[in-house]
Write a structure and sequence with these properties.
Layout (H helix, E strand, L loop, with lengths): L10 H11 L4 H7 L7 E2 L6 E2 L7 E5 H6 L5 H5 L5 E7 L2 E6 L17 E5 L2 E2 L14 E8 L13 E7 L8 E11 L4 E14 L2 E12 L4 E2 L3 E3 L6 E3 L11 E13 L5 E14 L12 E2 L6 E17 L2 E19 L1 H11 L19 E20 L3 E21 L15 E23 L4 E21 L27 E21 L2 E12 L15 E14 L4 E13 L2 E5 L5 E5 L3 E15 L2 E14 L34 E13 L2 E12 L8 H7 L5 E11 L3 E8 L7 E5 L4 H4 L4 E4 L4 E9 L1
Parallel strand pairs: 6-9, 13-18
Antiparallel strand pairs: 1-2, 3-8, 4-5, 6-7, 8-9, 10-11, 10-39, 11-12, 12-16, 14-15, 16-17, 17-19, 19-20, 20-21, 21-22, 22-23, 23-24, 24-25, 25-26, 26-27, 27-28, 28-31, 29-30, 31-32, 32-33, 33-34, 34-35, 35-36, 36-39, 37-38
Helix pairs in contact: 1-2
Length: 780
């Protein structure tokens, strides 16, 4: 049950009741009940009606999140047409917007994300994936498409997604408990238990406590598989790891917040949120092994633990509204993963098994590799901003600082490996990554809005920033395995604990600015159009491989025309935007030789698109809503795969890896959804039935043509969800079927190593199979 207790009564029903009591005719009350609800957002760092914000914003408020049964990222992102993503497992998801995606390798030492994800006031985007926040007792999810680099830092080049939690409320007690039980087709049983309580402590203070436990059922089987390594002739199997439905996930967490109104002008809100997510198994299947089957020889698991402490201070200084928002995030991930495809295919194709032997010099019967990872993220964020509102002018501005550290430790093991081949001091370790990555950015930002007339408003914003990226530590093989890399390339003693020495200590820094200019015209209180010219920026960074230079910044320029309209006495809300983007010198990550990630500035790309959403209430109780994104994203210059003597991407080559006109990967050309919900009385209850259809078009996972031919194209797919139930002031009961026709969609396709080597085994990350369940909720 998605926040049933925190939901207020359906607005239309409450309005009808109040107007009837006041003696207003029932016909008028019914007419008002068909008005589309107003949605309040904070996209421009202040509370405004969605219809007054000249930005392409889609918002999913509390009630809609509840109605759609949203629990996590995968649940809400399918209803955001401008958003696409690639995912390997919970917590390891990269997000893209408006087609600004290259399908690059997601690696701890690669580019910063191009889309920022915020939990309240703090960005929670990390290099290898944003936090998989449990969505319960959430006020709304806001999706801001297009460059948001003026008011938002931390990787908001192509857009921003914001998760806004409900805050403590001193006005009254509120509490709820919600539960769900579900069964996955060809899978196991799952469920969740969640609850919250809002406790007024006085007329100026309150506390809000939230807790959740969720068990996501597994649906992928690790089946019996044998493998013969050509060099040694060793035959291995995975009999000890055979298991049905082995990709289950357990999530437990909580949130606590306090609110203190010191006086009529100043409020302090401290909060803390924590979550632990334990995922077993693999979240992709091998089509050659059969639907939802995989054959892995080593354990796959992750233990993702994080907590965030935040403090918000709001007040007034004269005519200025002042806000300080600070937060500290700590995230730690322990993981194990099978990497035996690398060993098998390099041995099969190139005879690498001869290099993996025991202390007696005999090639190992089982040279299969597996990875043990320990990742630690630390991020602090501080923002001080002010708002001022005059008769015709409004100002928002401030200072921003954030520092993010990623402590990386990944060991690639081969059991019984000869000591001479090991990284020094690391038994059975063929390869070690022990690095510290640090990203910092500081900024001064501001926007000014001026009403030239009652109908015409201009807005201009700037953000001046300074960014730094550093990478230091050790990566590579031992001296017995490589005479030129790893330990052989060290130039100093270890600066990262439990590593043999240092062969990496690089830093880059840069500064610049982004801007946004907007002109809005209001035809009346219900209809407006706007035009925007804005830019987005992503800092450059370090290439670990010494023969490669640092990669440069890339820039996104956006030209946009949009509209916000309400029609037919408030029965219809229709918003949309058309846009053209120019993406210059974009960063592209690939797996190079020895599986080492290389980042290069690729070429130029252009994106043209349309996004629109509509809500219609044709009659009392019936709501129809939908969203659509059409995207045409392609290279506007050849991608050759190397830079010229001046460090610029080379676009003139005889055999480009991707020629001009190549479609950019990840984002489908069409993504759409349609939701129909009908609410009606049943005795003393309010009943409802709902259907939701989501269509995701076909798309590629890689930019390069050769790799596309190996991995293949992801087919389009359509999912259909149904739900029905009853509720009153205290109880809610609901049954649901998600992915009712068990459509098998591909969320991502990939190989474990370089596609030309490991592409013989392509894995597919599927959407969740058909899931049938019941929900029950109780308010107090």
């Amino acid at each position: 049950m998605r926040g049933v207790g925190g939901r207020k009564l359906v607005w239309s029903a409450a309005l009808m009741a109040s107007t009837m009591l006041a003696g207003v005719p029932e016909a008028l009350a019914q007419e008002q009940a068909t008005v589309v609800d107003e949605v309040i957002v904070t996209a421009q760092k202040r509370e405004e009606s969605l219809q007054d914000v000249p930005i392409s914003v889609q918002a999913l408020p509390t009630e809609q999140l509840e109605n759609l049964g949203v629990s996590d990222f995968n649940d809400y992102v399918k209803f955001l047409p401008s958003v696409s993503y690639q995912t390997f497992a919970p917590g390891f998801t990269s997000v893209y917007m408006r087609g600004v995606a290259s399908g690059d390798n997601v690696n701890h030492s690669a580019s910063l994300p191009s889309v920022g994800i915020y939990l309240d006031e703090q960005p929670i985007t990390t290099i290898m994936g944003a936090l998989d926040v449990n969505v319960y007792d959430v006020a709304r999810v806001e999706s801001l498409a297009g460059p948001q680099g003026t008011l938002y830092g931390a990787s908001s080049q192509a857009g921003t997604i914001r998760i806004i939690t409900n805050k403590p409320d001193p006005s009254g007690f509120d509490a709820a408990v919600d539960a769900e039980l579900n069964a996955v087709s060809e899978g196991d049983i799952g469920g969740e238990l969640e609850g919250f309580v809002n406790l007024p402590l006085s007329d100026r203070a309150a506390a809000r406590l939230v807790g959740w436990y969720r068990q996501d059922a597994g649906y992928i089987d690790n089946i019996f598989t044998q493998r013969t390594y050509p060099t040694s002739g060793g035959v291995v199997d995975n009999a000890a790891l055979v298991e049905e439905d082995f990709n289950e996930v357990r999530t437990v967490g909580g949130r606590a917040a306090l609110r203190f109104d010191l006086n009529d002008d100043w409020t302090i809100t401290p909060s803390i949120m924590a979550q632990r997510q334990e995922a077993d198994g693999y979240f992709a299947f091998d089509p050659d092994q059969g639907d939802l089957n995989v054959g892995h020889f080593f354990p796959d698991r992750s233990d993702d633990r994080w907590w965030q402490a935040a403090l918000t201070i709001e007040g007034k200084l004269g005519d200025f509204d002042v806000v300080y928002a600070g937060a500290y995030l700590r995230r730690d991930i322990d993981s194990e993963s099978d990497y035996s495809d690398y060993s098998y295919f390099y041995d099969t194709l190139y005879g690498y098994g001869a290099y993996w032997y025991d202390d007696g010099g005999v090639p190992l019967d089982d040279p299969g590799q597996y990875i043990i990872g320990v990742d630690g993220y630390r991020r602090q964020t501080h923002e001080l901003r002010f708002n001022w509102t005059g008769e015709r002018m409004r100002l928002v501005g401030g200072l921003y600082y954030q520092n993010s550290e990623h402590h990386i430790r990944q060991q690639y093991y081969i059991n019984d490996l000869a000591a001479v081949l090991e990284v020094s001091g690391q038994p059975d370790t063929l390869w070690l990554t022990a690095q510290i990555r640090e990203d910092m950015d500081a900024a001064v930002f501001g926007e000014i809005s001026y009403d030239f007339t009652d109908r015409v408003t201009g807005n201009f914003g700037l953000r001046f920033f300074r960014a730094e990226n550093s990478l230091r530590g050790f990566f590579g093989f031992g001296t017995g395995y490589s005479g030129s890399t790893g330990e052989a390339a060290c130039f100093g003693p270890a600066i990262v604990d439990d590593s043999p020495c240092t062969n990496l200590d690089k830093q880059v820094e840069e500064d610049g600015f982004t801007h946004r200019a907007n002109l809005t015209y209001k035809f009346d209180d219900d209809r407006m159009v706007y035009a925007t010219w804005s830019t987005g920026f992503r800092p450059g960074g370090i290439n670990r491989r010494g023969t490669l230079p640092p990669y440069s910044s890339d820039f996104l320029t956006n030209y946009e025309f949009g509209w916000k309209t309400t029609w037919f006495d408030g029965r219809v809300r229709w918003n949309g935007a058309v846009y053209a983007l120019r993406w210059e010198d974009f960063q592209f990550s690939i797996l190079g030789s020895q599986g080492l990630t290389e980042i290069r500035n690729a070429a130029q790309a252009e994106v043209v698109g349309l996004e629109t959403d509509v809500v219609w209430r044709p009659t009392t109780g019936l709501t129809l809503s939908g969203g659509l994104a059409l995207t045409d994203a392609q290279l506007s210059e050849n991608y050759c795969g190397f830079v010229n003597a001046g460090g610029e991407p080379e676009t003139n080559c005889a055999a480009p890896l991707a020629p001009k006109g190549t479609e950019l990967p990840v984002t489908p050309s069409v993504k759409a959804n349609l939701i129909a919900r009908y609410e009606f009385p049943i005795a003393s209850f309010d009943g409802h039935v709902q259907g939701a259809v989501v269509y995701t078009g076909d798309n590629w996972t890689d930019l390069r043509l050769a790799e596309r031919a190996i991995i293949g194209r992801q087919d389009a797919y359509t999912t259909v969800d149904f739900s029905a139930g009853v509720s009153n002031d205290l109880w809610k009961f609901e049954g649901f079927i998600d992915n009712a026709f068990d459509e098998r969609g591909s969320l991502w396709r990939f190989a474990q190593c370089n596609e030309s080597v490991c592409g013989f085994r392509t894995y597919v990350v599927p959407n969740r199979p058909r899931t049938i369940g019941v929900r029950v909720g109780r308010k107090f």
